[in-house]
Structure formats: structure tokens, C-alpha cells
Amino acid sequence: MRTIGIDLAVADLNTAAATITWHEHRATLDHPHTGCTDTELLRLLTNLTPGDQAGIDCPFGWPITFTRAVHAHAHLQPWPGRGLDHRSHYQAMRLRLTDQRVHRVSGVRPLSVSFDKLGAVAARWAYLADALAAAGTPVDRSGVTGRVVEVYPAASRTMWGLGKNRDMAVLLDAAPWLECSAQVRHAYEASEHAFDALIAALTARAAAVGLTALPEGEEAGFAREEGWIHLPEHGTLEALKDPGPVKD
């Protein structure tokens, strides 16, 4: 199986992809692909084969409270926050349910896709997701089905005890089964975007083998619209190399 990680940005220059090929008890890391265009990203995602999984470092949607408010404003309807305390209403529109959960579980605070420039990256993903749907491979924003999931590398590093810094030495010491040449290692050390794509590819593996939490109960409805960050369980990095059955 292969896992692909994509660190998505507004600009192609800052967009990177990483591919890991998984074998029994070990995995091989390919040279990163940087400066990825929409065409290249769509080719990667449409060429996933059974057993493959992709992790995208980008919000798959916006907070429901935010989209409802924008819709009301566009249609000259009453603003949903009318009569509410401004600060409370602002906070309600700022983060998705999955962002709140990630902060609660990992301690890492995600950026706001509604009130930060991250929204421009989400718009690029919305374009790519629509192109995938038009090609017959729609993306489930919750990641419960399909081969594409939303990930957050900074939180994944925390859950795996890799520290706050992007450090190949720390990663390879914690995961000695992850094989790469000196040239490939240098390429990941030289680019923070490539390194984030690598963590995204590892997180995609965790999602594929059931080591990330899925939305439950009322969370499912939010996740289908807002997206759902697949956060690895604490201390599961070592389990990635030989975790058992991979989802179809």
C-alpha cells in the first residue's frame, strides 16, 4: 500500500507532496514533490489504488455557524448573531467542531478557517474536491469512507511525541523502520512544506489502519459538512509499521 501526504497552500510554490510505500515491518519514503500544481495534485489523488490512502493538510470545510451567517447576509436575511453577545457569537463562528476537539485532545490550537488566511487554502481544496467529484471520485469530508482524509501535522506530531519542531532526526529516531536515502532525508530537512507532507502521509496510514478517532453521534453530521481532522491516537507511531488489516 501507499500513503500520500499533501501540504496544501494557496501557492503552488508552497505546496508539497510525500509518498510512503509500506512493506512488512518497514516503509520506504520517496523523494518529496514540491511546487505542486492542481493538475499534479489531481493526478496523485485520482491514481490511488485499493488500499492506498491520502492525507491532506487543509480544512475540508468551514464552521456551520459561519456558513449559515454568510448565507443569511448574502440573502439580506437577519444576521444569526442578532441579539447575542458579540464576542460569544464571534467565537461560535471561529472554529469547527473538529478544531475544538483537536485543541481539547492534543493541546494544539488550529487556525480559524473562517477568520484567517487559511480560508484561502480551503477554497483551493474546495476547487480540487469539486474536480475530483466531477471525475467520479467524490471526497467524504468526514473521512469515514473513501481514500482521502483531512489531517493536521502539527497535532499529529504532538500525539506521537515528536515535539513542536519539524525535525527529521527526531522522526527517524522514533520510527527507525522508515527508510530513506541521505538525499531524500536532506530534501525533507530543507523544506518545511515537504516535512508537513511527510507527517500527513504518516497520518494517512494511521487513518487507514484505524488508529484515528472517527466522529461519533451528532459529530457525524458536523463532520460531513465541516470536515473532520483525523488525529492519531497517543503513542501509535510505532504501530504504523505492522498494524494489521488495512481498510479497503
Automatic annotation (TrEMBL):
Protein name according to UniProt: DUF429 domain-containing protein
Taxon lineage: Bacteria, Bacillati, Actinomycetota, Actinomycetes, Streptosporangiales
Organism expressing this protein natively: Nocardiopsis lambiniae
InterPro entries for the chain: DUF429
Pfam families in alphabetical order: DUF429
Top-level lineage group: Bacteria
